[in-house]
Every structure is written in C-alpha cells, then in structure tokens.
Amino acid sequence: MKRFTWRLLFCSFYLLLVISCTQTSPFYRFKTKQPVLDDPPYLQVLLVSYKEVQSVPITLRGRFEIRAYDVDRSRRFTAGDILEKGSMLNNVTVRATRDGLKIGGIIVKANDVVIIPTASTGPGSLIKVGTRPYRGRLRIKALSNKKLALMNIVDMETYLYGVVSSEMNSAFPPHALSAQAVAARTFALFRIKRAQKKRVNPNYDFDVTDDIFTQVYRGEERSGQKIYAVVDNSRGVILTYQGRIFESIFHDTCGGRTEPVHLVWSGPLVEPLKGRICGYCYDSRFNHWQVTIPARDIITKLKLPETKSIENIRIVDSAPGGHARTIGIKLSDSPEEIKMNAQKFRIALDPNKLYSTRFEIKKRGQSFEFTGRGWGHGVGLCQEGARGMAEKGFNTLEILEYYYLDTRAVKIY
Prior knowledge:
This protein has 413 residues and is an alpha+beta fold.
C-alpha cells in the first residue's frame, strides 16, 4: 500500500515539495515527482451513534470474513487469521459476550474484530449499520463495560464520497464540491498524523468521528455520480503551508468574514487560518437568524447552580469578523461574572440551535434572544462562500487559495 512508512511520509514532506514541479490544473499547482503514496491511505471513522451501546443491528448481503483487529495501518487494520466467514448477515444483532462478541448466530472469541466484505463490487459490498450503508470494513470493539463501539475502516477517497455529500448540498457547483473534497482530505490526513502520535482515549482508537466535531460522514447515504466525479477529479490533492500539512477546518456560513483560528480557540496562530473578508455567502439562509433560549435552559446546559438566576449575558470581546470570543454571565447574588469561551458556550447550548457566535444578545423576560449571522465556528473555508465563488466562475484552486491563505495545493498520489 505504501511507498514510504507513515513516519517518513510526514517527516520528509517538506523535501518532496521542494522537488515538485509546477502543473496547470484547476485542482492543484504542484505534483511531487514521485507519488508519496501508491494508494489512498485507510482511516478509521468512529460512528458516534454507535459508541457505548449494548447492541447494534447490521446487515451485509454478500460474502464476508471476520478477522482480528490489528493496529497496523498498512494491513488495513486486520490480522492474517480468519476467525469466521459466511455468506450473509441479514439484520442481525451484535452484542458483547463474556469472552468476545456475538454477531447474529456467530460467536467470536475476540473482543476486537473487523468484518470484511469479500464481494468487490455491487450492493453486497455495503454494510448497513442500522439503516445507514457504508463501504469498506466494519470494526466492532467490545468495551470494558460490556458495551460496543463501531468504526468504519475505509480508504480515503471512498471516505470523501461520504464526507462531501454530507458536508455540502450535492446541488452545489462542482468546483465548490471539489474544494470541499481537498479541504476534507487535508483535514483527515492531519488527523491521521495526530492520531498516530497520541491516543486521547484508549477505548476509542480512531482517526475521526462522523459528526460536526471533525467532519460529518454519512457513508453512502447521500453520495451519487456527481459526488464521485468531483472527488475523483481532485484525487490525492492536499493543501500544505510551507511544506507541511495543517488542520484545514471549514464551516457552513461565516456571515461576512472568516476569523483567525487562535482567536476562536486557544492555541497558536496558523497562517492559512488567519481569516479574511468573505463577500460570497450573503445569500445563505443562515446569513441572518434569531433564536430565543429560556434562562433556565441555559443554566441547565451550562451546569450552573440551579439556585441561581441569570441577571445578564454579554459579549466580553470579539474577533475581527464579529464572532464573540468570550461570553460573560452574571448570576444573581454573585459578585463577579462567569467568563467562558464563546464556542464552548455555543456548543453547550446546542450548535444546531445557536448557529454561530456572531450574535447580539438581549434579555427578554426570563429568556435571552440571540440575533446573529452565519453557521459554524467561522474559521477556514466558508462552504456557502465556496458555492458563491463557484457560481461566479472561480475554480477549485482559486476557492481554496482564497480561504486558506498562502497555501499550496499538491497532488501526492
């Protein structure tokens, strides 16, 4: 699978870019003289809805093998020995047992296994978890509390079919979708690199999750021919800054200007994510919004003392684009206000209700009214802005270079 080991891939990345040659393409400017990888890397996606559950229904209409999990990425996370094999798993229930796993009528004496479809193409190669179909492999891990965690093991390009179709509307122009594919590929490779350095939670050794906290991924639920084409057109293209990969985050709608990453979350300034004016997302349906949240709900969700009431909520300081950085909360009978990061405040209240931190706050009786612009954290590529740019005739490369400043688009496989 690999031309270099993963350690060499990232340690020698700068040298490979130095010897790159200029290309003319709407998707990249540079291509390494030799591919960094022969094939797309495999990664693990934690299926958040299926972590710490007691049982899971799965379906696989085709031949399969069950093998032990192996941490070796070059082996696609599977060991050599076949534990079990069969021809169909039709809406069977997976449970943890005392000494392993029960998959329908199959009892496997192993706590960490991978189900591998052996059909190469067609509907038999899809694994349904609940009602959602996935390509690739399904990892099932029994946790210490006799519950389960499920992960989809899939190659990068197939993974991107699911990400692009979940993160963007497939009706968007092809160059907006391709820009999303490059940003998502870069983000995923960055997370692979980080995951290899440190596992935060030993129960969940994965690269990315399938939700808004990394990249939304719904498997094959929304993909189709248009999505396949735009991902394939940008195959193997990533973004780099000064020869290094970076965390190319993105969001739905900035509301007028993207923000410097270090002013939204704690951490250093990342030059490609230092923010810029965006005049392309003005017709997003989230460009203007208003929501009212009861004060008691805010107390509950922020885990504030139930005996207190909220006298006031204010914006302490803001980033250049107008997104709040710090929120101040004044409780009754408390001499000082509580200050917290605005993004943490938004996530705690519900990021799908309080759409962004670019808002104004007014107290309305026993509730607080938030009037705002945008959806998301406001850093990196603005997805609605990418749509607007593509509709005005900008290509993939021009969109990426606009939102990720001073970066190079490089084809590495």
